[in-house]
Structure prediction request, 162 residues.
Amino acid sequence: MRKVIVALFCLLLAGAAPALADEAHHRQLAMELMELHHAQQMVEQAAEQLKGRLLSRFAELSATAPDPGAVKQGRDQAAALIEQEFAWDNLKADYVDMYVSFFTEEELQAILDFTKSPAGRKLQDVTPALLMKSQAIGQQHSKKVIPEVSKIIEGLTPDKKE
Prediction:
């Protein structure tokens, strides 16, 4: 009986090995794609922006606080918490999980192949400019529509001349 259990266990392990290898390769492809798309740098930039916004509140506090030293200490603690939570080593596995959940191994390989192609490299090079121009287009159209929408809202708002 013991030999049968050991044999079954070995068969199970042998069957699981390719699945584990596939999962490791899938995750490796996701990491490679993230590296090509500079995910770490983008996440670090976003974290710095968040940190700046959150820590700006401490600057407001220090102007009126009775104990500016306590505010500085609180700011330093908050900065350390933000840096720790948003450190790439803490986030990387979550990002790999995200890519693996959205893309099959074959899709990741196809995306990698495209990203490494001349057209893929060009897309990656011009994407920041495309994003900036698209934001400018959106702002331009917003400037046209916001006053009109404001007029519509004003027309629906009862006068408050009580």
